[in-house]
Known about the structure:
Layout: H1 5-17, E1 24-28, H2 35-50, E2 56-60, H3 67-87, H4 89-94, H5 96-100, H6 105-116, H7 122-131, E3 138-143, H8 152-165, E4 168-174, H9 188-210, H10 227-237, H11 240-251, E5 252-257, H12 262-273, H13 278-283, H14 285-294, H15 300-317, H16 324-347, E6 360-364, E7 376-380, H17 381-389, H18 394-418, H19 423-426, H20 434-449, H21 458-469, H22 477-492, H23 502-506, H24 513-518, H25 520-542, H26 549-565, H27 574-583, H28 586-599, H29 613-625, H30 632-652
Parallel strand pairs: 1-4, 1-5, 2-3, 3-4
Antiparallel strand pairs: 6-7
Helix pairs in contact: 1-2, 8-11, 9-10, 12-15, 14-16, 15-16, 16-17, 20-22, 21-22, 22-25, 25-26, 26-28, 28-30, 29-30
Amino acid sequence: MQLKNNEIKDIIIDYLKNDKSNxxxxxxxxxxxxxxxxxxxxxxxxxxxxxxxxxxxYVSLYGISSSNEIHNLVSSQITEKYIEKHLxxxxxxxxxxxxxxxxxxxxxxxxxKEASGVGIDFVHFNELKNNLDIPTxxxxxxDDLERCNMDVITVLGYINSISEHSDTKVIIVxxxxxxxxxxxxxxxxxxxxxxxxxxxxxxxxxxxxxxKANNSDKDSNKSLINKGLLDEQIEEYxxxxxxxxxxxxxLIGITIKYEADFDExxxxxxxxxxxxxxxxxxxxxxxxxKIFTENNHSNIRTLIFSLTSIDKIYGVLxxxxxxxxxxxxxxxKIIKYIVMQSIYIKTGKHKYVWSEDSKxxxxxxxxxxxxxxxxxxxxxxxxxxFLLYYFxxxxxxxxxxxxxxEAIKSQKELLTEQKQLSYNIISSWWECExxxxxxxxxxxxxxxxxxxxxxxxxxxxxxxxxxxKNNDFGLPLNYIEDIVNNMAYNxxxxxxxxxxxxxxxxxxxxxxxxxxxxxxxxxxxLDSRDNKWIKEFQDYLSSDSEFDMKFEELCEANKNSFLxxxxxxxxxxxxxxxxxxxxxxxxxxxxxxxxxxDVYDFSNLYDYYLDDINTIKNILSRLNExxxxxxxxxxxxxxxxxxxxxxxxxxxxxxx
Length: 656
């Protein structure tokens, strides 16, 4: 069960009140869980409030390598409390660096007198002298136990001496999963010697017993020493974990598992680490914490990283002069992206790579071929630049966001305009009044001519018109035919690949003869366009130019046409293909690999490209006939091409 922060505080306060117990409390938490923040910001203030007469000493064991260092740190803490009590906090602050170097009583007195001119009477001197030994009636907190550079058993022994032999309550803060796992290096040579002696004794004993039975074993004393085996034996004879558990059983009375309660500490973190956007970030608390919860991430350092990054970037965003409606929505997206990217960067799961000319776009958090189903957010390159390199350009951020906001605003205005289009009535004609349908039908022809619709809407428009016609609205067939002819004309004007192909139109109502007859002008234009692209593809192969990026672009542009015709490699001329491979450079071969892989990038190739089998076999045969290149790098590239073609051929042959 995970305890709330207040519950942990209550347990600790009750423990401190119990005079009969001299065992310590262990606060156990994972790295980054916020243990230190919780102790310093929550526990110590609470203790000081409830135990005003008892001094609280906090010691970090990070990097400590000897018991003397621990004692010096403890002594320094006590000295600081003493000076604060008798000379005031102002003097304490001015002498803080000097205090850390104090090792003995005499230097303390001399330094204090020389540095501040303040005298110390005999009573104070004795009090200081006594306190520089083992403290009494005090609370000692030891943090970072797992990060000290010495045997944890030795450290716990020192802490145990404080806990047992003085009226001192001890709180230990550590990541227990990293405790007791270290193989101490102290006395390691003696341990090796001990193990070697045992091994020698066992070996000599075995040899003496078998010497008479077998005098030929002359190499029995020549066994090599195996360090790995020695380490295993050391662990067996000197089990650190076992010793740790015994020491823990004696020293620690209560172990509390600490996990950061983000909901409780969020405002404290904002107040401590955020410089200028506290109110704004606090208003986004639920959004930020929801992302951490959804990603099962509870590292307080990542949360702090997110908060400070939001603070810096929001300082720029808040100055942008744009319509509030659009700006606030986009800032919300940017905040979400900052938090998500912070988590992924800190966990090493993902580092999105932006292309050179990209400023923003959809960022997919998981590798997924069908990306539409993957987890994604809208991201900005300037966020990554800041999170990864702490680089940001205020002017560039402002211009990038304004550019994005203007595009969003323009798109919204276009959608508002499209809502006034006739199709919004025609697509749900059965819910409309007759006069509304009539007005929409009157407007539709001019809207088609003016190309107010995306071509993807054409299919649904035709289907809706047929429904209206077949429900006795008196819509003549030639009206629909004129609409379709104008649509076909628009298709003909497409210069670039649009992602629309014949299957888009024939997949629906394929059995409807009237529909099939109506769409024939559109299909004719799509065929013509496809043939034009394929001809360009074939012309490229027959040209004298080397393979280059153009091959990849043509494969991408034509892959829907290839899929529809169920042919790709089979439309190639094998001789032309091999010749072009022969005089292309190494980079060109990789362009070929990428282009072919893009077309064949799905598992059920055998459902579409069986006609390509013989062509692929012929190409592989020609590639295997002889070495087409003396270049080592090109030979490697050709081998990769062959391997890829063999893999695709194996898939195609799966159903044969």
